Amino acid sequence: MNPTILVIIIAAAAISGLAAIYFFRLKKRQLIKFTVDYAKNVEQAIADCKFHFVNVDINAKNFPISSETIGKKVDIAGKLFRGFDNSKDAIRKMDKEGFRPGTLLELLAISIAHPELQERFSIIALGSSSFDSRRVPYIYVSGYARELHLHYFSDAWSVKYCFLGVCK
User: Which domains, and CATH codes, for the chain?
Assistant: First the structure.
């Protein structure tokens, strides 16, 4: 879409009070591009994120990297899915749109490439689960502190949280 036309549409919508809704719908469709460096282990990727808090169970032992990807750099296109209060509904929606749940290293890569997203949304990676196969990682901002936590896959989520989907 021509940027001039977009500005006119947003200005016209603002007059009628619809600018925020229209802008959100535009942003919602955009793909987020980032690169995952599988040459780094989980601890190195976490260090690059400069989190203020990291759950001690998030490490290479509990979240091993697939042997097929070690040493590779992969360009990824992803999308944030919002408005779900449980993991299964979010995964169904991702699958329907041609996405799969993001993994821990993909979550860390998006945190490095697009830190502003974490400031606006808590982002969950349903494609990786911890050693007990029940907890999944998510990034969160508490005040000004960037944090990396674990949450139970089966528990309810706030509809304000976003789920990282990656193109299949």
Answer: 1-30 (no CATH), 31-167 (3.10.100)
Q: Can you give the pLDDT of all 168 residues of the chain as single tens digits? A: 444 444 444 444 444 443 333 333 435 558 999 999 999 999 999 999 999 999 999 999 999 888 788 888 999 999 999 999 999 999 999 999 999 999 999 999 999 999 999 888 999 999 998 877 789 999 999 888 999 999 999 888 998 899 999 999
Cβ neighbour number for residue 119 with a 10 Å cutoff: 10
* Distance (Å, whole) CA 54 – CA 38: 20
Q: For the chain, give me the number of helices (H) and strands (E)?
A: 6, 8
Question: How far is Cα 77 from Cα 168, in angstroms, rounded to an integer?
Answer: 9
Q: Which long-range contacts (CB under 8 A, 24 or more apart) does 154-159 make?
A: 154/86, 154/87, 156/85, 156/86, 157/84, 157/85, 157/86, 157/87, 157/90, 157/124, 158/85, 158/122, 159/82, 159/83, 159/84, 159/85
**Residue 63, token pair as written in the block:** 């979240």
Whole-angstrom distance, CA of residue 110 vs CA of residue 105: 9
How many residues does the structure list for the chain?
168
